[in-house]
Amino acid sequence: MRHFSAGLLALACLAVPVAVQAAQPQFWQLEGARDFLDGETEGLSVDSEGRVRLAPATRVVQDPEAPYVWSLARDADGRLYVGTGNDGKVFRIENGKASLLFDAPELEVHALAVGKDGRLYAGTSPDGKVYAIDHAGKSEVYFDPADKYIWALAFDDQGRLLVATGSEGRIHRVTAKDKSEVLFTSPEGHITAMAVDGGGNVYAGSTPGGVLYRIDRMGKVFVLHDSAYREVKAVDVAPDGSLYAALIDGKDPSDVRPSVPSLPPVTASVPSGEVTVTESFSLAGPPAPAPSPSPRPIEPIRSGSAKGAVVKVSPTGEVDTLWSSSDEMPHALAATDDGVLVGTGNKGKVYRVHADRSWTMVTSFPAEQVTNLVHAKTGEVFLATSNPGRVHVLEAAAGTTRSGNTATPDSTWSAWSAPYTSRQGTPIASEPARFLQVRAVLVGQQGRSPLLDTLVAAYLQRNLRPQIQSITVHPPGEVFQRPISLSGDVDILGLDEPRNPEGRPAAAATRSSMPSATAYSRRLYQKGVQTFSWRADDPNGDTLVYDVYYRPL
After folding, report:
1. Which of 295, 408, 538, 539 has the fewest C-beta atoms under 10 angstroms from its C-beta?
2. Please, which pLDDT band fits residue 260 given cuts at 50, 70 and 90?
3. Cβ count near 476 (within 10 Å)
4. 374 in helix, strand or coil?
5. Which of 221, 202, 218 minimizes the C-alpha distance to 162?
6. What is the CA radius of gyration of the chain?
7. Quick one: pLDDT band at residue 3, thresholds 50, 70, 90?
8. DSSP H helical segments within 145-236, as ranges?
9. What phi, psi does 353 have (nearest 5°)?
């Protein structure tokens, strides 16, 4: 059941002096996005224009019976991996069925990544370690740094594991088991978010300063953005190379960041039974102990300060704040072709935010935080929630196509294609033909009706030859006056047109311009002039450009 409720009872607490007169009807009007979002929404989407519509269907994929689901990862075969707390368990979801894959000695699994070798890598906290886990669930300690927290894992373009840590604020690059080097040491206490682009650049976000860094493939560090927030919660790279970042916990205006010291050279650690490597940014001396970021459900910050924002850093370095809130914190991001999906707390909502700053509150969950987002190959989106910890799927509306060359579909038409589910578009799989039929599949559940508002199919006609319908040779000296003269003189159609290098008038025009012009033009006589006109059509509706060839007889 979809419904909207708001706190109407609060009006009874208002005391308003009124003149002594007959009671008049009063109206309470809800209008605009803020009015609707101030209430409780269930099964509804609300966009930045204040329009309310039915939300996409969602369903629970797994209930791990854990308070927190911190991390999600998907392998090449579509299997989904789920990292939880407070029992440090990793689950695998395959063909809709969940099973326990790994139970870590540590309490939290904040980071998961799938390597090129097909193994799953899990980063645990506190007393952080990275475990490598095969399909059978066999595990080994792959990397054991001195850092207390492991916040993020990623693989670079050469297949090396990158480990973002806390308490020391480093990024380690692990080349093999127990073999690593410090890629980056930060003046910040924690590197809380990390992503890698196709060019080998590593992007990192920190706390308590809320700084966005870029480390290029040569190891050079550059600050992309020194934000007005204390923590970078998540980062993701869009297909166009833009970087999206979720920021939380607004700073006081009086907060001043210290300057970032120069980066020391990268040095590789010496392999040993217990690897102690330094990662990320470092100060000249050992960094002072920094408080660890809240292990995901963030404590409410003091009233009046900004709680969160989503910024976009363009490939050329411009920073634009696309979304901000004084009562919600963005915890998770998933970039799309036309913007970014944002999971928030402490109301468990998902927003779709676009580059033009428009947004839609896509759906909400009976949970306090949406802590992770992962795209599926099928176009669906997997979402992790905490308090309670569950895995949900945001189902995409599906469409299929078939094609044929008869106006009415029959046995000669192609079979229905596999479902198209990506909102960003998918190449049409049906055979090229004269006719295309589209079938939309909308599945409701629990009495809720899905909504389809737009369906777009791109097509390109086969380029057909233009056809010349007629050529007219007018009597010698017969000319046609141009309907509108800019000079005040008598302008003759086709005369004094721009000339090509051979000296001939360039007969370039849009289709049918000459026949239509002569049909409504005044006929005149001008000695020494020969007029030709023609009519041509293009079945594709293309603009026609003409070349006229002639020779004396």
Report:
1. 408
2. very low
3. 12
4. strand
5. 202
6. 32
7. very low
8. none
9. -115, 135
Residues 6+ apart with CB under 8 A from 20: none
**Which pLDDT value is given to residue 22?**
60
In whole angstroms, what separates CA 128 from the centre of its chain?
Answer: 31
Averaged pLDDT for residues 185-204: 96
CA angle, 104 then 105 then 108, to 5° = 65
Distance between CA atoms of residues 195 and 154, nearest Å: 7
Instruction: For residues 309 and 323, give the distance between their C-alpha atoms in angstroms, rounded to a whole number.
Output: 5
- Residue (of 284, 343, 288, 333) closest to 312 by Cα position: 333
Mean pLDDT rounded to a whole number for the chain: 80
Which string of DSSP letters, residue by residue, matches 200-226?
S-EEEEEESS-EEEEE-TT--EEEEEE
Single out the residue of 497, 490, 491 nearest to residue 545, CA to CA.
Answer: 497
pTM of the model: 0.65
Q: Structure tokens of 479?
A: 């000319």
Sequence spans of domains, the chain: 29-63+341-393, 397-460, 467-537
- Which of 436, 452, 434 is closest to 444 using CA atoms? 452
Taking only the tens place, the pLDDT of each residue in 132-150 is: 999 999 999 999 999 999 9
Residue 33 CB neighbours (<10 A): 17
